[in-house]
Amino acid sequence: MILDRRRLALDALTVLLAAAGVTLVVIGGGPPVRPERADVASAGAAPAGAPPAGTGTPSAGAPNAAGAGTPADSAPPPPPGPPAPAAAAPATSGFDGFGPAPLGRSTPVRLTIPAIGVDTPLLELGLHADGTIETPPVAGGAPAGWYRNLASPGEVGPAVVLGHVDSARDGPAVFFRLRELRAGDRVAVKRADGRTAVFTVDRVAEYAKAAFPTAEVYGSLDHSGLRLVTCGGEFDRYRREYKGNVIAFASLSSVA
């Protein structure tokens, strides 16, 4: 009887040890596999002052509770480099002798787009203290704004202009009809030097904010280009912002 009890106790201990062994194998197994580093392909070089690849542009006009636009992304661009000197722009090898010669650097002061009834002064936009791009104010007629850390309109490179699409308080804003632009429409930008750079629209496209075409908007060019950016797509009523951007791409076609 005592032997049977000892046998039963030994069997029980064996079962417990076996169970403990299984538990140790499950919990204390080998180290987890270290994930491989994901390769990141560069979409192309961008000039100084452009946000890094993969970031979007500021939301230019998504109405929120306060009626103002909100930034499209939280990843700040790097500190901008100094603007290109005015004398350097015409010396680019990108000018092939056909079409207008590019202009030197000059602050843009007014933008007109007859096809969609736009006539707006242009503000200068820079960076916030946290490195995010400024957006034009909603108050004061909600004029469009030029991002001064890239090319000026008419200069070699991408000139970027941001404008609100609408606001909760005032309704349609300066770029409300931007999506209606078509290839061949004209955009005129008056500059502080008295010249007017006239651009012809190449295309208009809509992008989800997560798929913002950073390289196409901010990337280096061998000619004078213009990008007009506003919000678009579906409006997220919970976050009080649009889910996408409408962007018009244009190229310099004449100078007055």
Automatic annotation (TrEMBL):
Residue ranges with Low complexity bias: 41-73
Keywords of the record:
Hydrolase
Entry's Gene3D superfamilies?
Answer: Sortase
Disordered: annotated span: 36-103
Q: Which SUPFAM superfamilies match?
A: Sortase
Point to the regions of Pro residues compositional bias. Answer: 74-85
Question: What are the protein's GO molecular function terms?
Answer: hydrolase activity
Q: Which domain of life is it from?
A: Bacteria
**Mind telling me which NCBIfam families this protein's record contains?**
class_F_sortase (NF033748)
Name listed for the protein in its UniProt record: Sortase family protein
